[in-house]
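pls ignore typos typing on phone
pyridoxal-5'-phosphate + seq
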Amino acid sequence: MIAAWDGSETASPARRFSLEREVDNRTMQNNLAKVARNRPSRGRSAAHPAPSNSNLKLVSDEAAAPDHRRILAYLAAEKPATPCLVVDLDIVATKYHGLRQALPAAEIFYAVKANPAPEVLARLAALGSSFDTASAGEIRQVLATGADPKRISFGNTIKKTSDIAFAHEVGVDLFAFDSEAELRKIAAAAPGARVFCRILVEGKGALWPLNKKFGCAPEMAADLLVLAPTLGLVPYGVSFHVGSQQLDPTQWAGAIAEAKRIFDRTASHGVALKMVDLGGGFPATYGPGIPAVAGYGAAIARALEESFGDRQPEVIVEPGRYMVGDAGVLETEVVLVSRKSYDDDRRWVYLDIGRFGGLAEAEGEAIRYRIRPVSQSAAAEAPVVLAGPTCDSADILYDKAGYALPADLACGDRLRIFSTGAYTTTYSAVNFNGFAPLRAIYI
Ligand SMILES: Cc1ncc(COP(=O)(O)O)c(C=O)c1O
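k done
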């Protein structure tokens, strides 16, 4: 299998990690380069080279392998019907504390979209987290935990006026925009609100780039922030997102410098901004070679110091994938193992979960989860194509990524897909081909 931390499940996570790291770093590097090569739809070019983590050792230690022992014990004891995601809320709490330590000056706004389960929201609310929301629905979900609306940001730059009005009515006071039309909608539906403008950033090194659809050019951002008070709004700051699963902690520096230039430009028009929103992008540990969160904290603190010196802004972060990704393990059943011809050297392994059942981020083979059989096998591993169970030919998970599974894998065997706590439950279709949405259990 790919990028596998393949020690015995009884070995300590740290031990497994060091065993596996020796063999898998090169594999991971190759895989990351392949990810970029295999994703023409995301528009990589000479200007957007393949992400590489070759420089990461310079800035950070590697993140330790996630400790999934509690989940594995639960799965072994309960043997839930598959497909089933089990999420360990203690891991969420550990991640929260890790980020707090890495970036003590930043207020954490958990990106609810990554996993909006009430259990996750309640745990984070109890820890003191604030929340970044994408819709009126997510705002309702956060309010249902009892969280103060002042701890909610409406971070989507594309909002219906009626949803802005709803947010304003319930007490949300912080809104994102990246266009004049959106700014005017906010002015009409949420008079007096604080607004921040999202800027376009390049975000090299992200496995799930977000550099096209959201944000505007910095000059436009400055102009709109200067316009905001004339519309009765409070111009509050600048936001960006350097791309999800961002493997290069130095990517924040350029965007922070850009934010400072916007601060200076608006100040020259008498508009003093207060806040920089560093977005998400902090990674889940899908395999070895991922920098530790402390490395991100150090690189960001350095960049803030270089750009803002002794006039530091308020800083917020919006982690999604980092906060919940490693907290989940998904158990799935092999529905079919087959070959396409007598001389086919790869088996097709069809699972009871696929791209429509929650693994949407396998699109372009961008996010490559670690996948292991539940039962140890003495058989050698052999190459596989992994696919989901639906009658849709797009429902192929991994074809080019080079996954391998034991040669004796059979129908009915179970596999575990690791670090699947983020962007899975909410991506699963409601009833596509008659399959039920992904079930999740929170422990
Ligand atoms: C506005 C905003 N903030 C935060 C996030 C979370 O990003 P990540 O999961 O990479 O931390 C996203 C993801 O799409 C986003 O759109």
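Residues 90-324 form a domain with the TIM Barrel fold (CATH 3.20.20.10). Confidence is low (pLDDT under 50) at residues 7-58. more later
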